[in-house]
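Subject: design request, 250 residues
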């Protein structure tokens, strides 16, 4: 019979399912006999060796599992970081786009306001310049008109003096003249006046001399009515000249 007959209390595998190590509990007598075969120190040392082996085995499994899971988590973490970076870049891009749009709008608004200001100021300047030019032009025209009137007056005075000399010369030679001389003592009959109006109506020299005589009239000479003097100068016939003179003088 086996030496364990009647002495085994319990027995079990310690490494199920490998079933390589068996744990056996003996009765007290058997244990005393066992101590005679092996010391407690040796049992303790062997137990520690077994536990260390088991610990190393379990630790290896845990380390492997941790490494495996860490690799997986590392990928997840890296992906999470990548997602965060991508999201941050996307948000940053959107912010830049919003800022650039805002900056463009503000720039366009400032340009529009500046152009409006420039146009307004330019318009004011042009209006000011136009007013100045109009005022200066008016002064120049007035000055030119005054100068022209002065020159015409001087010219008429010169022509008047020449006509006086010419008339005196004719009178001295022929003791007569068809040149009108307003203010002389000789009276002209109505028939003579009508005859002169018809005969001398288109005589350019006579019409011209009559214009001079009319412009010598003190009432005409001192008037400031430029339209009157202009109408007298522009008259083409004697009848037109006399009609203008009498209608405006009355």
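Subject: RE: design request

Done. Sequence follows.
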């Amino acid at each position: 019979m086996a030496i364990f007959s009647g002495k085994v209390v319990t027995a079990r595998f310690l490494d199920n399912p490998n079933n390589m190590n068996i744990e056996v509990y003996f009765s007290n007598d058997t244990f005393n006999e066992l101590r005679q075969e092996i010391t407690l120190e040796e049992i303790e040392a062997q137990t520690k060796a077994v536990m260390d082996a088991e610990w190393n085995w379990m630790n290896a499994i845990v380390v492997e599992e941790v490494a495996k899971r860490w690799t997986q988590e590392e990928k997840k973490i890296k992906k999470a970081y990548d997602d965060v970076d991508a999201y941050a870049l996307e948000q940053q891009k959107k912010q830049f786009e919003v800022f650039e749009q805002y900056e463009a709008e503000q720039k366009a608004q400032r340009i529009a306001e500046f152009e409006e200001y420039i146009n307004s100021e330019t318009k004011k300047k042009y209006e000011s310049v136009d007013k100045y030019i109009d005022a200066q032009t008016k002064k120049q025209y007035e000055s030119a008109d005054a100068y022209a009137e002065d020159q015409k007056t001087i010219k008429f005075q010169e022509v008047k003096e020449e006509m006086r000399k010419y008339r005196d010369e004719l009178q001295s030679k022929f003791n007569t003249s068809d040149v009108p001389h307003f203010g002389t003592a000789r009276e002209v009959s109505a028939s003579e006046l009508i005859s002169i109006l018809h005969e001398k109506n288109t005589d350019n020299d006579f019409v011209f001399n009559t214009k001079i005589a009319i412009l010598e009239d003190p009432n005409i000479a001192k008037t400031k009515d430029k339209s009157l003097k202009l109408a007298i100068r522009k008259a083409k016939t004697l009848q037109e000249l006399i009609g203008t003179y009498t209608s405006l003088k009355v």
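Residues 174-185 have pLDDT under 50 and may be disordered.
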